[in-house]
Amino acid sequence: MNSPPIRETDLHAYVDGQLDASRRAEVEAYLAEHPAAFEQVQHFREQIQGIHREYDDVLNEPIPLRLSQVSHRRSWPHGLAAGIAWLACGAAAGWFAHATVQPQNISVSPSAFARDALAAHILFVGEKRHAVEVPAEQEAHLIAWLSRRLDTPIQAPDLHGQGFSLLGGRLLPGGDAPLAQLMYESKIGERLTLTVKHAAQRTDQTGFEILEKNGISVFYWIDQRYGYALSGNIDKPRLLSVAQAVEIQLKRR
Amino acid sequence: MSDFAQDLTLQIPRLRRYARALTHDSAWADDLVQDTMERALGRRWLFRADSNLIAWLFTMLHRLYLNDVSSHRMARAVSEDSAPELASSGDMATQLDLRRALAQLNPEHRAVIVLIGLEQLSYKEAATILDVPIGTVMSRLMRGREKLRALLSGETEGLAAAATPFLTRIK
Questions:
Q1: Which DSSP state fits B44?
Q2: ipTM of the prediction
């Protein structure tokens, strides 16, 4: 079998992780025999790493108020337009009222929290190189940092018994308070995120509730001043057993 | 907040990173992010729920950026003050070189390098966002990276001259 010769485009696609496994192996074999190409690949990798060093900190900067307020400020023309679109889609008139009369305040309801957790899960779980801000190797630092930012002690449950190890964590903007996201990964690459929120007010305890969207399930519950949401696209009984393990460990706190 | 507005809020950090990398100017970058978000909210019914939100937002942000560039906002000098703090002082010189080299790339090369290297998009996604064929993405990527390489190794002669005409060529 004759495969096409390795060209410059292949070297870039190799660096960018955009080759399939067989072509990748061919490029690797080529690089082993061509030091100049290997050096070029190394240089491009350094460029990419340098660009990450230059701009990744932006992800962790506090979001300026003028930006975080944009999505809360539902100006009338937008709401009206959205409402008209709903009607055009044949949605019931009740929806129109619901969509436009809905209060503007930032909801702190458990389901809103679960939706935040789900959206954040979707956003970061697919990241190859930047799934977490602080990796699990620096667990002590991670926990101290998240605890400081959430203004309360945070714990990372040990889920090895359930087949998941801690990958690391990150801080997320929440409606009224920051959220901590801890990411876990199984040996075969399945990822779960545990999102933790700390509320100033003690809230009524809830049992496990479930939210599902696009094949991803979120189990969420409230324990005193803490909200927890465990998200993943593993099957529900398995996710539930992990959620139970998390709850038991955190209750011992 | 609606689901859409929440999803949008969660994308703010990535939009800011992309805009900062394009403009290298934090105030300009946040203006672009704000305009993008407002535009996205205004056109939310055009967004298909099963498609990629960040790619849709990057597309809008990139168009706004090109508008700014063509309306001479580009004339603003790259502000060293607005650049993010360096994580470690050991790599200070290398990082400063990289920053200067990036600033010398033309907007087209810079956008491709940022979308693929920093934002980890596929070549196909980048082609959609930039509204060019995938082959153009590849050639801009190769030329952009070679230019960066030349700039970083000090071969600046001729390259600066080659990059400048682009600023006036943008439609």
A1: G
A2: 0.81
Q: Which residue from B84, B114, B149 is facing A57, i.e. has the nearest CB?
A: B84
**Is there a contact between A15 and A41 (Cβ–Cβ < 8 Å)?**
yes
Angle at CA of residue B65, ends A170 and B141, nearest 5°: 75
Task: Report the percent of chain A where pLDDT is more than 90.
Answer: 31
Point out the residue among A43, A54, A78 whose CB comes nearest to the CB of B84: A54
Q: Tell me how many residue pairs between chain A and chain B have CB atoms under 8 A apart.
A: 140
The highest-confidence range among A42-56, A86-100, B1-15, by mean pLDDT, is: A42-56
Q: Which of A53, A68, A106 sits opposite B95 (nearest CB)?
A: A53
Query: Looking at domain B1-79, which of 3.40.630.30, 3.40.640.10, 1.20.120.80, 1.10.1740.10 is its CATH number?
Result: 1.10.1740.10
pLDDT in the model for residue B87: 42
| Phi, psi dihedrals of residue A135, rounded to the nearest 5° | -75, 160
In the structure, what pLDDT confidence band is assigned to residue B72 with cuts at 50, 70 and 90? Answer: low
A37-70 per-position pLDDT tens digit: 999 999 999 999 999 988 988 888 888 888 888 8
Quick check: A51 and B98 CB within 8 A?
Answer: yes
Structural domains for chain A: 66-251 (3.30.200.100)
User: Residue A111: which pLDDT band, with cuts at 50, 70 and 90?
Assistant: confident
Residue A92 identity (one-letter amino acid):
A
Burial class (CB in 10 A: 0-12, 13-18, 19+), A89: exposed
Residues in B touching A123 (Cβ below 8 Å): 10-11, 14
CATH code of domain B88-163 = 1.10.10.10
Give yes or no for residue A74 having a pLDDT over 80. no
Domain ranges within chain B, ordered by starting residue? 1-79, 88-163
Neighbour-count burial for A1-13, b at 16+ CB within 10 Å, e otherwise: eeeeebeeebbbb
Q: Quick check: A116 and B6 CB within 8 A?
A: yes
Residues of chain B in contact with residue A68, where contact means CB-CB under 8 angstroms, are 9, 12
- The rounded distance, in Å, linking the Cα atoms of A51 and A46 is 9
Distance (Å) from the alpha carbon of B163 to chain A's nearest alpha carbon = 19
Q: If you measure CA to CA, which chain A residue comes closest to B151?
A: A47
